[in-house]
Amino acid sequence: MNDSQTIGILKGLVIDGVNKAKSGHPGGAMSSMDFAYILFTEFLKFDPDDSLWLGRDRFILSAGHESMLQYSMLHMMGWLPIDELKKFRQLHSKTPGHPENFHTKGVECTTGPLGQGVAMAAGFAIAAKHLAASIDSKLFGHKIYSLMGDGCMQEDVTLGAASLAGHLKLSNLIWFYDRNRQQISGNINRATSDNEELVFKGFGWHVVTIDGHDHTQIRKALTDAQTAERPVLIIGNTIMAKGCATQEGNHETHGAPLSADERTKTKQKLGIPDGEDFYCPETAVKHFQRRFGDLRAKAKEWKSTVTDRQKDNDFKTTWNKYFGKEDWSKLTPVNWPSGGSVATRNAFGDVLKQWATDIPNLMGGSADLEPSNMTGPFAKAVGDFQAASPKGRNLAFGVREFPMSAIANGMALHGGVIPFDATFLSFADYSRPALRLGAIQKIRVIHEFTHDSFYLGEDGPTHQPVEHVMSLRLIPDFYLMRPADARETRFMMEEALKISQPSALCLSRQKLPTLEFTPAQEADCRKGAWIVQDQASPDLIIFATGSEVSLAMAAAKDLPKFKTKIVSIPCWELMLKQDKSFQDRMISPDCKRRVSIEAGSTLGWQKFTGMNGLNIGLDTFGASAPMEQLVEEYGFTPAKVVSRISSHFKD
Predict the structure, then answer these.
(1) Residue 529 CB partners (closer than 8 Å, separation 6+)
(2) Domains of the chain: total
(3) Which residues touch 335 (CB under 8 Å, ≥6 apart)?
(4) Rounded to an integer, what is the distance from CA 55 to the centroid of its chain?
(5) Is 448 a known active-site residue?
(6) Considering the chain, what percentage of its residues have pLDDT values greater than 70?
(7) CA 134 to chain centre
(8) How far lies 223's CA from each of 38, 216, 217, 517, 599, in Å?
C-alpha cells in the first residue's frame, strides 16, 4: 500500500458516506485530501491513545462542510468506527453533517459557519502562545492547523482574525487554503478577484502558494512552516473533486452526491474494487498509521516530563494556576459602600481588577472600548498579550467584535485559560454568530456588554440597545445576566465562572443604587432570582432586571393600595433551572396582578406576567437626547410607572 492508494481509499470513504446519506459535500473533501493526508500522516503531533493529550497539535476543519474528510481521517486513526461513517448525517451518529466537538472524538471544535473555524484557530494559537510563555515553551510548543476553503476566505471574520493574528505574530498558527475556485453557485470569479497573497502579506503573514496536489510541495510548505516566525498561510491551488472520473473541477460536486455512474467510474479510477462500499483494508490503515509508534513515544516522553517537573514546587504551582482544580470559594470579596451608587460596568471593572490576581488564567479584553467597558485597570494589572509579551493577559482586540468573540471561543476550546471579551450591548449583533456557536459547543466564555439600554442617552438609537437583551435570551444554553447593582454584578460574575456555557453580563453606564442583601437573599440571587421586597400574600408582583429594579422599588412606595412584592431576576436561565418550589417562591403563581419592568423589548416577559399582565419596556427605537429627557419620554420614572400600574389594575 502506498500514499496514492491510501488517498484513493480515503476519497472512496468520502464518496460512499455522502452517497449513503444522500446529502453532503464530496468535491471540497476530495480537493483537500492530499494536504490533509500529508498533514495527518507526516506532520500532525497527537497521541493515538489519548485524543485529549494537552501537548497535541490541533487540527480545525474550518470548511466544516468537508466533514467526511475529517471523519475518514479519524477512522484511519482508529478513533471512529466504519459503522459511524455509514451513519453520516443520521440521528445520534458520531458523524453529523458538520463536525461537532462534543459528539466526536478527535474533533477540536464545532465548525460549519464559514470563517469561524480559522478565527477560532487564532484563539487556540493565542492560548498556546500564552501557555508556552507562562509554563514552558517546549511543553506547549504545538502547532494549530486549520483547513479553509474559498467560502472561508470570503467571510469578513476570517480577515479580521487574520489581521490580529499577523499583528501578534502567531508563529504557531498555520492555515491551509484549499483554493479550488468553486463554490455552490459556480466559479469564485463571479464574486471575487482578490489577491490573497498580497492581502495576507500585508497582514504580516508568511505566505506560500503551491500546487495543492503535489506532495513534495505540500511537504516543503509544512516543513518550512515549523520554523516560521509569523503565522503561515499555505495557498494550495487545487481542483474541485480531484480524482473524479469526469466531474473534476465541476462546482456541482460541491454540495451534492455523485451520480451513480460517476460514483462507479470514479471508484474504479481510484483503485477501489468493483462493488465495494466503504472499502478500507487493513493494509491501508497500517500505512496510514505507520508513524504511530513514534507518536506514542513522543507523547509518553511529554507526559513523563510533566510528571517529573511537577516534583518542583514552583513548576507545580504555575501548572496548577492553569490546569488545577477550580475553587471559586477563595475569590477575594469585592464590596461597595452601602447607600452609594455604582454603575454596574464600573462594578465589573472593580471585580475584574481584583480577580486578575485571584484568577491567574483569566484572559481577554475589549473591542477598543477599554475606558467604556472598564477593562483598563485589568489591562494595566496584567499587561497586554503582544508578540513581545505573550505572558500578558489583556487582549487589545481592536474594533473586531465578531473575530473577537470567535477567538475567545477558540481560547476556551484550547483549554488552560478562561477567556472574556467586551463591547457595547448594541454591538452584540456583530458577535452573535460566535455567541451562538459558543453555546452550541458548550464552552465557558464570559462576554461583557455595557451601555445596556437607552439610558446611555445622546449617542442615539444606533447605540441604544432595545431588542438585544431579549434576543440573547433566545439562544439556547446561553446565560444572559443583567444585574441590578454592583453586588449583583459580583454574584453574577462568580456564577458565570462556574458555568460550562457562555454567559453575557449586560451592564449599565449610569450609576445604580447599591442594594442590601441578607445571606439568604444572596444565595437566592446566585440562583438567578431573589425577592427584593416581600409580602406574605402579595396582590401585586413586579419583576425587574438591571436598572429597573431600583425603579420598581421607588414606584412601589407610591402604590399603598397594593401589597407589592418585587423580584429581581438577573438571570432567567439560572432561575429556570431551579426546582419548582424555588420558582414558585419567586413568582408567586397565585398572584393575579403581575408587572415586568425592563428597559428593552417586552416580548418574552409574558412568561412571568401572563397574557393579562402589564409589561413596561421599550418596543421602539430610542432617540438622541440626554438621559434625563429620555427617562421622561419613555415613562421610566417612578410616577409614570405608578400611573401605568394604577391604570392597568383598576379593580
Answers:
(1) 567, 568, 569, 570, 571, 574, 575, 586
(2) 3
(3) 487
(4) 22
(5) no
(6) 100
(7) 24
(8) 11, 10, 10, 61, 56
**Torsion angle of C-alpha atoms 528, 533, 534, 535, degrees rounded to 10:** -140
Do residue 469 and residue 417 come from a single domain?
A: yes
The rounded mean pLDDT for the chain is 97
Distances in whole angstroms, Cα of residue 418 to Cα of each of 21, 481, 497, 595: 38, 18, 8, 38
Answer yes or no: is 316 within a domain: no
Q: pLDDT tens digits for 487-515?
A: 999 999 999 999 999 999 999 999 999 99
Q: Which of 478, 513, 548 is the last residue of a domain?
A: 513
Catalytic pick among 401, 495, 573, 598: 401
pLDDT in tens, 167-225: 999 999 999 999 999 999 999 999 999 999 999 999 999 999 999 999 999 999 999 99
Q: In terms of residue numbers, what domain contains 350?
A: 328-513
What does the alpha-carbon distance between residue 125 and residue 164 come to, in Å, rounded to a whole number?
Answer: 12
Bridge partners of 565, per DSSP, are 541
- The CATH number of residue 638's host domain is 3.40.50.920
As a whole number of angstroms, the distance between CA 615 and CA 638 comes to 15
CA gap 39, 59 in Å, rounded: 9
Residues 561, 513 contacting (CB under 8 angstroms)? no
